[in-house]
Each structure stands twice: as structure tokens, then as C-alpha cells.
Amino acid sequence: MKESLSIDQARKLVLLSQKLPPTKQAGRATAATLSAIEHLGYIQIDTISVIQRAHHHTLWNRNPRYKASQLDQLLADKQVFEYWSHAAAYLPFRDYRFSLPRKHAFASGTQRHWYERDERMLQLVLKRIATEGPLMAKDFEHNGKRIGYWKTKPAKRALEYLFMQGELMVPRRVNFHKVYDLTERVLPDGTDTTVPDAGEYARFLITRYLRANGLGQAAEIACLLKGTKPLVSATLEEMVAAGELLQVWVADTLYYVLPDSLELLSKPLARNKLKILSPFDNLVIQRQRLKTLFGFDYLIECYVPKSKRRYGYFSLPILWEGKLVARMDCKAERNESLLHIQHLALEPTVLKTDALFLALRKELESFLQFNNCNKLRLHRTCPAKVKPELQILINDLTA
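Above: the chain's sequence. Below: its structure in C-alpha cell form.
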């Protein structure tokens, strides 16, 4: 017999599994950052910098003591590494061997790279790095034609090709530009480099996803992991038959869950703590799941023509009382230490704003510091009638 969860229970399970809002943490702040990465399984990297970059933002929301230097330290200490999850990401080194199936797929050609293979350039790049040490794309001169939509020079394409198939790694970035080195010079001593078989890989994907997300379906677990859905689906059924997983209904949708995760439902959720999330936060990255479980129809509009944007270039989901209640388009004007709230749009379900705005005001104080700003400017709200109420509450933050 399958168990059932109410939508509120499902949301609570997801949020507690996602470590949102965060609870009080003991120990060193850098250790808390590593713990967050290991628990979530990955932290997506993104280039957009209208506010603090997504990887820093996601970690800050799990660790209020987070500083960008902590991630640099974890990279230097070889506790985390950069590779690909569903997108470019920081991954815990303890999971390194589970990055190998994707790397081997690229190397063997069973998974096609988005760049064409240029064997001569691959060998040239490898030889230079082997001889000269770590290099960046800018260290390879190119005066000819750049290729493709992104106008990428051939050496950069080769670097990315070698990175994706595992011959190069990125031990650090300089001004957000990747530094590439030979994998054998980056891997910590004693790293397990045995390739998991198909069953072990599927169990890893399932367990990691459910531990971090509370409940899930095969399509969610296999999302953007090419060719893995049939294997994940079959392994889910095996794990249910063996009593390693449970199936639960949420409304009319069937999910899988780790049995001990249901114990989280007896723990409190810090509902009064408001969190301003990144568009690339692990909680919100799968948009259809977000709509199904939280009733939040979310689209990041930085890729939408300006004339067609409804909420703004980089709107941030706002979590409060176990729900996603608003989205806030922000921009940090760093030379002025000024954070702009271009547009705060409340969900239609928000009827009373007094408690919400008090919680938002408290979080904005921390959010300003996180973005190295000391001034705040509110431009527009929806509905417009709530702007004066919020403006009064945040006036002392705008001096």
C-alpha cells in the first residue's frame, strides 16, 4: 500500500531536505559550506552578475556565515571540483568517481560534445599544458576566424572538449576565467577513480537526488542526464521491491522517497524566516516540479526580449512560510554600493502583507551586506498600492 502526503507535508519535506531556511549551525563556517555542497550534491555555476553570482547565492542561503573565499578555499584544498551536473557546477570530491560515466561517454563519442572534435588542436593544447603547466584560454593566441554562435576560438573549444571528457580539470578561476590543468595534477592522492557500473551509478543518482530533494520521480532524477532515464526507472522499481524506497502519493502524482526522509516531517520548519533565492537555486531549478509542488509558475526572463518581460531581467523567488510568495527583480550597482529593487511582484495568494514585509525587511538587511551594498532603492511593486507600506519599512536601509 502506498502512503499519501498532503501538499503541505510534501512542501515541508522538500524544504527540510533542501536545508531551507537554514537552521543554526555549529563549527567552522567553511565546514558548513562543504557540508551544504555534499548534501545538495552540486551547486550550479552561473556567469550572470547583476547581483552576487548564483553559486555564492545558493550557498549563502544554506550557510548565513558564507563568504566567497570559502569556496575558493575548498577548491584549493581539493574538497570540491568543477564539472558538469545538469549544468556547470561545483561538486564534492567525495563523489568524483560518479562524474566518470559522463566523461567516458564524451571520450568514447557515445555522448556528443557541443563542439566538433579537432584532434590536432586537442593534442596541441594537451602538450602545451603538460609542458608549461596550468593555462587559460587567453594564453592561446588566435588571429583567425572564431567559430559558431558564441564566436569561440579553436583553443577554447579544445580546452572545453578535454575538460568534458576528463583529461583536464579546472583547479581555480581567475576573474571568473577558467584555469585548466592535467587531471592527474589536480586529483588528490588516493582519489577513487574506479568507474561505477550502471546499477551503482543509478543508485547513486537516485539516493543523492532524494536525499537532497525529499521526494522525486524518474524524470526529475534523470533530468538533463542524457540516456539515464530508463536505467533510473528500472532501478527505482528494484529499490522499491527491496524496501529501500517508498512510493507516496501527493494529490494524484506518485513520487519516490527514502524511508528515513519521512522522519523529517516530525521536525519544525522555520516558516517565519524569509529567504531570497537565486534563479539557479537547487530548489527552483526544475520549473515544472516547482509548479506542481509549490504552485509557482517561474521563468527567468534574462533570456526573454525586454519588451516581453513580465517581472524583470533577473527576478528572485521569495520563500516565506513554506511557500513561494513573490519574485523580486534586483540589480546591484556596485560602484554606488546601491541595490535596486526594480520590481517586487507578489503572488495573487498573498492577501496580508504586514508580516511578510517585516520578514522581507529583516532579510534585505542581510542581503544588502551579502551584495556589498549599503543603500537600497525600491522602484516598483505589484500591486502598486503596497509600495508605500514597504517603503516605510525599508527607509532606514536606504540612507
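The mean pLDDT is 94.
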